[in-house]
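User: My instructor asked us to take a sequence, write out its structure as tokens, and then describe one feature of it. I'm not sure where to start. Here is the sequence I was given:
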Amino acid sequence: MKAMILAAGRGERMRPLTDHTPKPLLTAGGKPLIQWHIERLARAGVTELVINHAWLGAQIEDALGDGSRFGVSIVYSPEGEALETAGGIATALPLLGDAPFIVLNGDVLSDFPLERLAEAAGRLDGGSTLAHLVLTPKAGYKTGRDLTLRGDGKVAACEDGDIPYTFCGLAAYHPVFFREVKAGAASPLLPWLLAAMERGQVRGELQTGLWLDVGTPERLAEADRVAAGWTT
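Assistant: Let's start with the prediction itself. The structure tokens for your sequence are:
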């Protein structure tokens, strides 16, 4: 099992903090945000990691190195200009291989058990099921497109009368999901997800514990308070 951590975003809403520091290296609880992911992946037994980067990417490589001090192996997928989520993953596919893999947004903080995500990845068959998303109840701030979870475990775009959920940025994918995404070109994830949902190929589950989209200085301060409790 391999995992990819998405770390290529510019972090415009976090400026000026991100003018000189890439967002995944901003600290919460005394550690860079991305380090929490790395340590939790290692504890879950997922030790082969791919990290993409663009803005100030050299700082990420300098800070994390080859991952050996965290008990993992890290390889990097530099982008130059950020390729958005689908484009970044498609570009990294040669590093990720032919088996299902985990993908984590580098700028979220969550206590979701990554062992469960690894188990879900192992159930992706490359045909009827291509992706598994972790959803959470809508936050009190603006997030992405509302999704819903059907009784059969499939994820769909939210319609009138559905319970709206937010995609956590924690997922598992089969490489086939990205087969038609052009490597090296910018491509957002949502259109590809919606198309796969229409075909019934996306499953999901709910995260009822902690999830923070660390997208603003105020939410970084909240993440710092939460993560400080994890270190004691």
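For the description part of your assignment, you could build on this observation: DSSP finds six helices and 13 strands in the chain. Try explaining in your own words what that tells you about the chain.
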